[in-house]
């Protein structure tokens, strides 16, 4: 199993230094989405006191020419703090700071989808939109080979691995447990985890989160997972189809509801929202992975618990549909629905914004209304 050289360094020696007093100062790690729309970057600064609110945090900057976000001749980009979390790696009073990125002219960077998402969420705050996202991922060695798989072959076929127990079924549980506890410490709204259908594939769930909080908490959960895997010397992949052939892909199923959907008789509003979604399928496909649907085309084949990327479908308890209504919701006539189309590497800001635009703002057509000429 190929692990990184850093994983071989003595953690006990490092711990001697991590236990040294900080003299009343705080380390704040600023985190942002880079120019790929998938990668995360981070750097740390010292603060004189523990920040209690976003207003306590200074703006910062970085070299965008080294993160695929600007040219070298005009490379300064601004980091705008937006959400604070406890740091599970350095521990209290240190912080993780999720940031938006602005260009030299103070306009959002191309992969800063948070700013527009926040504006859209503000329009519907009185409807209290809740989201829950199911983030699937695959653990790989640094050579790109799935963790625990035979070096020159494949494990046994899918069947025993989903929610499996035992060394021959659960590949990498230590990473999953470390990530779960780190998220709880940080204040991320993580609500569960399980082994998935393909060996070395896992899932964690974040939510319910209201509005912009969904994107903030999922991105921070992803960052923490990257850092945990770094400590173990392995790599996390959010690729929607990391292994071709008869193996399940990885998605980010998104559960959605409004206050009205959650109340008595809310099934009517759920059905109305699904009808709106059925008329805007291609718009959502483009919003549901960072390459405008190209990544998801490898996953949404109509096999392996997916729908066909070219067709919209909906059904009760149907995991082969675009939209699934849970059986309990069908029985109780209220609750939420699950959009099974988003890919594992989706931007949650794009996904949640698209759902609001179509289901609550009543937009039609294949372009967001603000962008129409």
Descriptive overview:
Helices cover 26% and strands 23% of the residues. It is an alpha+beta fold. The chain has 2 domains: 23-111, Roll (Ubiquitin-like (UB roll)), CATH 3.10.20.70; 121-360, 2-Layer Sandwich (Creatine Kinase, Chain A, domain 2), CATH 3.30.590.10. Strands 6, 7, 8, 9, 10, 11, 12 and 13 form an 8-stranded mixed sheet that branches. Helix 2 packs parallel to helix 10 and helix 3 (173-186) packs across helix 4 (213-232). The model has no long low-confidence stretch (mean pLDDT 95).
Low-confidence stretches: none
Got a strand count? Answer: 13
Structural class: alpha+beta
CATH class membership of the largest domain: Alpha Beta
As a whole number of angstroms, the C-alpha radius of gyration is 21 Å
- Judging by the overall fold, what is the CATH architecture of the largest domain? 2-Layer Sandwich
- Main beta sheet strand tally, sense and closure: 8 strands, mixed
Helix content: 25-40%
N-C termini distance: 53 Å
Classified in CATH, the superfamily of the largest domain is Glutamine synthetase/guanido kinase, catalytic domain
β content, as a range?
15-25%
User: How many separate domains make up the residues?
Assistant: 2
Q: What's the mean pLDDT score?
A: 95
Shape: globular
Order of helices and strands: HEEEEEHEHEEHEEHHHHEEHEH
Number of contiguous helices: 10
Pfam family, one: Gln-synt_N
GO cellular component, one term: mitochondrion
GO biological process, one term: glutamine biosynthetic process
Domain GS beta-grasp: 26-106
